[in-house]
Amino acid sequence: MEYIRTPKVENVRLMDNHSKNPIEGTLYLTATHLIFVDLNRRNETWIVHTHIQSVEKLSLVQSGSPLKIRCKTFQVLSFLIAEERDCHDLYSSLLKLSKPVRTEELYAFSYNPREEQLIQQEGWDLFGLNNDFLQMGLPTRFWKISRINNEFGLCETYPKLLSVPSLATPALLVGSAAFRSKRRLPVMSYLHKNGAVIVRCSQPMAGLNSRSIEDEAYVDLIRRSKTSPNDFMYIVDTRPMINAVANRAQGKGYENTDVYENIKYHFLGIDNIHVMRASLNKLLEACEDSSSSMGTWLDAINSSGWLKHVHSVLQVSSFIAQAVGVESRSVLVHCSDGWDRTAQTCALSSIMLNPHYRTIDGFLALVQKEWLHFGHKFTHRCGHIDGDNREVSPVFTQFVDAVWQLMRLKPCAFQFNERLLFDLHDHVFSCQFGTFLGNCAKERQQLSLAARTYSLWGWMMKRLDLYTNPLYRGSEHHREENQLLIPPSSPQFVKFWLSMYNRFDYGLQPRESVSTAVDVLNKETSALEKQVAMLKKLRQQLRIKRGILQPTPASNKDQQPTSKDFQNDSQVAIDQLYLNEPSSNGSLGQPLHSSPELTGLQRQNVSADNLLSLNSRSSPAMTRKGSPVLANKKKSPPAESKSVLNAVVGTSNLVVSFTARQADGSDEEPESDSNHCDVTNVSDVAATPSASNETITSWEILKPDVIDPTPILETSPSVESA
């Protein structure tokens, strides 16, 4: 609060690049937010201080003093303040508040979600690394889960749990770590179902002629840790070759293929953090310029190189995914220190390989594993605290952009929508939650973030209805032939993400919000699902009341029905179809399968003639109480018309239906034996004969949910007469 000189500034105008009419209002400056409220108090604009990328005080104009604020969420605010002194005080305060000196001064340590109903412990243990290892099927014959780094003694920037080859000894791991930059030795990142793996690490300390016997043996052990140990392995260096060669002069470099056996080395040329930072700045300048012509804007987008860099990241990830998923070869991936380009490509290739990572839980678990557990310098790359600006780079922003490009490729393959990407990206920079504070797991443990701050994952789990993609077809994309998601290599595939980089230029956005339509659709879907559940419950109660189902014992309430239960249910349903008058015990008639004419009904071919002949003993009127009976024969329609007599018994897994044609207008049943159907005992499905006027020869399999449990007996017009 000591940095706030003027907490309230009146007579402020908010300028809009796409409108000539400014919005007048009042600015409020708090310890955590800058708030603009218009005069009518209809709209409020809240900017958390940690979202502020830069504050610029422009030259004084006749109408006041301009102040421009650029945010890390790509929002640009231009204020015109009447008093120059107020503008200067506001400028000085925002410079201090947007760049805290210590991590403990960030918003997460004072955030109190009073209206969110969020528990502090909620979400911290939601995506444990051990759970992801188990999801991949670890441990296996070739790979184990090791606790050698339990005290962060092997590598300070790695998690406590590591997946390494089963035959790797502690001496081999320690020797390999000593030869790698930041001691980030090769560890398994992803295990594919064919046994091939993605391994991540940092560059070796090779220099001009250095080598490590332990590291060479360890890399060879990784290559042999699969069912085909004689295969070669790829080493993917994500840097341009000239950068890797330059690092050799600093005692680092890359693996020498003369001493690393059965290795194919690839330099795949993703530029460093400095190039990416300059590229995004140029892109945002082009987005901010609303007065440029079409040609000027296209030239500016092209000269920024941002789309080229996103395409490059996708192509490297695609190479890794094809090597693992198609060629069944293991891949070792590294850049310089193994926490920027390595995190990008390992995460993206996992999304391409495994549909689990295209679900909401799977994607967030992937971010937790590749970016948080294995370390990424969020404090430096996102500029959370005041420091060296040369360390700031949009590495995570580029990853989110690449994920969106993949979502465009197959919209129905992803369970989440772009709103999840927006919230994830924004809260990485907001510091509202402790999830993305610190550079590695050790720093987060030292800061006691789980006890002092709230988790972003807990907050996002309460908003799943906003993140769910209604077009998602998970079962289809989990099939064997649909699991790989490899993007095309052509540069035309990568598009400019308007809804991200011009998100707050409302004049450029669609007039109808897709996210709002999705929210409405999700709510309607949820309401319909509840209605279906209620109807199922009522159906079961009705069937129990009619005696079709036996009440479930109290001890078996939670027991799932088996196929045998459905089979018995089918027999009960047949027993409930009575064709005689009420018997002495009060029932409506004799069970169908106990009739001497229909002994062994379940395995017989029963003709429509036989079924209709049984009706000769039925009661004069059709009853709807209890089990149904077939009505007495009524006067037939004229000869030129036709009718279809349907007798249906509805159960959860069996429907017996037949049709009879009355073409001559008489009251007699057809004499042809060709009108017949098969009554077959089936389980877990329901069967109805396909529509036919004369002979029923085929069956349709229906879902149990769509079958009316109430037996139906009706005479309806045929298709031709209709």
TrEMBL record:
Substrate binds at residues 272-273, 335-341. GO terms for biological process: phosphatidylinositol dephosphorylation. One of its GO terms (cellular component) is cytoplasm. PROSITE patterns: PPASE_MYOTUBULARIN, TYR_PHOSPHATASE_1. InterPro entries: Myotubularin, Myotubularin-like_Pase_dom, PH-GRAM_MTMR6-9, PH-like_dom_sf, Prot-tyrosine_phosphatase-like, Tyr_Pase_AS, Tyr_Pase_cat. It comes from the Eukaryota. Residues 518-545 form a coiled coil. GO terms for molecular function: phosphatidylinositol-3,5-bisphosphate phosphatase activity; phosphatidylinositol-3-phosphate phosphatase activity. CDD domains: PH-GRAM_MTMR6-like. The keyword Metal-binding does not apply. The active site is at residue 335. The keyword Transcription does not apply. Keywords: Coiled coil, Hydrolase, Lipid metabolism. Residues 123-501 form the Myotubularin phosphatase domain. It holds the Pfam family Myotub-related. Residues 552-566, 612-621, 677-693 have a biased composition (Polar residues). Residues 546-566, 612-643, 662-693 are annotated as: Disordered. Belongs to the protein-tyrosine phosphatase family. Non-receptor class myotubularin subfamily. PANTHER family: MYOTUBULARIN-RELATED, PHOSPHATIDYLINOSITOL-3-PHOSPHATE PHOSPHATASE. This is Myotubularin-related protein 8-like. It comes from Phallusia mammillata. The gene is Mtmr8.
